[in-house]
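Hey,
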Amino acid sequence: MYTITVDHGAGNLKVKGALGHIIEPTRAATVNGERLGRSTGLRRASPPLQIASEGWQFYVGENAHDWGRAIENLDDARFATGAPGVKAITYAALTRYMQLKSIHYITDVEMWVALPQTALSEDTGDATARGVRAWLEGPHTWTADGESYNLEIDKVKITTQVAGAMFDYLLTDDGAYIPARTEHFKGEMGIISIGMNTVELLGIKNRTVSQRFTKGETLGVRRLLDLTDPQQLYTRGELDNMLRSGSLDIGDALPIWAAEVAGMIEKRWGNAWKRFSAVIAVGGGALLLRDMLLTTFNGKAYIPEDPVMSIANGLYKLSNGHKRSQAV
């Protein structure tokens, strides 16, 4: 069976598999059919990837919001319903992944999907998982810039993003536990995932989730972007582009956001984090708040080399571990 892991982030959709990995900005815009002609003295921008399926069409990618009507839905319900915008972004990331080896058709896929804790809460988690499986399992056909792609997903496994981050820390690439870190798993650990939409905390005690130390709030990088644009002159996608390119002035907003995130962590963990053997921080926000995290956790913070891909990497390692155990 062919394994693909997917981290459904609100800022990027990350894909990991045998072909490599892809980070696709989760920006989509409806195609309105309008195209501007050339203007003397001005460069003509290339259009973003155009994804079409089931009668709908979307621009997807970094500059999608410059080409059509922006779709910005960060509600957790989008995962369960398989809304066209979510499908378009998923197909765009899978297209980029398949293009790594010029492949247009993959069958017999087992897909591991990481979702925010807020989407898998005790109240709605079962319904969300059923909804995600309903639209992901089965055959998928779409076009990307007019070229046809097909993917057949036989099985979908769903877990939280913070769980993926934990296994990225604990496992080798082939899914074996790293001896020096196994003791951490038997004791107490803390995981922080700082994405576009949410900041999520997970406490682990003796291989089980500690409810006391587990919490998710919509305090992710979107909050930093909102602080830089109080007049709401830009879409979040446009602000995110500016942030990535280094052209967004976050000098005044960053300390405010950092204090808010630190306050959330302190409210949930207090000084109890000092009991943890390690505090793992992942997500694009971990790069922005690196200094705060390293200072706050005083030598216990661990930020992986690629915190953006960490969750998808962790799920892929976990899937390799399952394959090893089944082969024995």
